[in-house]
Each structure stands twice: as C-alpha cells, then as structure tokens.
Amino acid sequence: SYELTQSPSVSVSPGQTASITCSGDKLGNKYACWYQQKPGQSPVLVIYQDTKRPSGIPERFSGSNSGNTATLTISGTQAMDEADYYCQAWDSGTVVFGGGTKLTVL
Amino acid sequence: QVQLQESGPGLVKPSGTLSLTCTVSGGSISSYSWSWLRQPAGKGLEWIGHIFSTGNTNYNPSLNSRVTISADTSTNQFSLKLRSVTAADTAVFYCARDSVAGSLRYFQHWGRGTLVTVSS
Fold first, then answer.
1. What is the pLDDT of residue B101?
2. B45–A97 CB contact, under 8 Å
3. For residue A96, which residues of chain B lie inside 8 Å, CB to CB?
4. Which of B26, B39, B46, B63 is the most exposed place for a label (fewest CB within 10 A)?
C-alpha cells in the first residue's frame, strides 16, 4: 500500500518561514493536499491539488510537489499557525494520509 | 454552505457494531460522494471509505471486511457500520464531503466529529 511520510515535528520562530514536507514514492506524479488541525477541531483544508489555496486561506500558505516530496510552506508564520498538519494523496482508489507534523511556533 | 453533523452512540461494547449517521444540510447527498474518516486520540487521520452518488462504495483495504457505508437520499443522510469492534477502534469519527480536482480526491467540508469509545 502507498505510504506518505512526514517529520513528527517542526519548529519555527514567529515571522519566519516554516517548511513541512511529505514524502512518498513518485509523489510528484500525483496530486497532494494539506490540512491544518488545531486541538479539538476538525481538519481544515489549506492546500489542494499541490498548489491551490481554498477561499479564505491566507496567502502565506503555499504548496509545491515534485519528485518524491510535497512541501507546505508557511511564510511569515504566526502564532495562530501552530497546529498539526497532514498531507494527503489519492492512490489506487484509496485516500492516504501522512502521519502528521506538529508545527510549533516558538 | 454545506454542513455535516455526525450522530450515534458514544459507547460501543467490544465485538459489537459501531453505527454512526451523518446528516447533511445545505445540499443534496445525491450530488456528491461522501466519506467517513477517523482519528484515534493523539494519532493521525485514517480514511475509512466512501459512498459515491451512484450508491457504489469503496473502502480502505485495512477495514474492508468490517465496514459498510450506506446512504438514504430521503433523509439526506449517510451512515457507517463498523463490525467486530475492539478498543483499537476507539476514535473521533468524522464525516466529510468528497471533492475532486484532477486525480486528487480530498475533503473541504467536514463534520465536527464524534467520539466513539469501545469499552465494556
């Protein structure tokens, strides 16, 4: 079965750029999306189809996907961005999630 | 704006069947595909399966033998049944509406989630 791998945690200082990566075999040949989840809340879609932002998602969130790695980039990270982030892809008729990355804004 | 709300028992006995319903408002379930997902406490998201607007279903292979998803267009609801549950099935269960972009299926609309505990 297809697997997506994320680093468990990433730390960033306020105002700096955070990069969260998601690795999978030939992931660049598929589309990826990203969700933000804060404690006690449902996930929120922040990026879909590799690079697209849903309405209402701040411009500081961006995405890319090439080779074996998809990346979620948060520019000018704010304290409110502290959350768990999950990547997701679609493979062989199955939805696959990464294990999640906890973003800490120090 | 579509809204989803999960409902069902919060406690299920081991070896029993977990049954949840998702009530959809703000749109017809006949027009989209709908998924169930779950998240054990402190762990990641897992997709359980979905039902297409045709009524066809597709399940996560890891749960395929225990899962049934169905829909009732007259009540605008879809449901999940998970059989032979164990403590490992304890989780927050979410219903969501499928969105499709190219070859990607993803979730922009989620319910608030409901905690189901498997315990005697």
1. 86
2. yes
3. 47
4. B26
Q: How many Cα atoms within 13 Å fall on the side-chain side of residue B40?
A: 8
Bridge-based pairing of strands A101-105 and A9-12 is parallel
With CA atoms as reference, report the closest residue to B106 among A44, A62, A24: A44
Within 8 A of A33 by CB-CB distance, chain B residues are 104, 106
pLDDT under 70: residue ranges of chain B: none
Amino acid at B78: F
Residue with tokens 């977990």: B18
Which percentage of chain A shows pLDDT scores above 70?
100
Mutation for B interface: A4, A42, A49, A86, most B CBs within 10 A: A42
Q: How far is B17 from chain A (nearest CA, A)?
A: 23
pLDDT in tens, A31-64: 999 999 999 999 999 999 999 999 999 999 999 9
Give me the pLDDT at residue B50, please. 96
Residues in chain B: 120
Q: What is the CA radius of gyration of chain B?
A: 14
Residue B33: per-residue pLDDT: 95
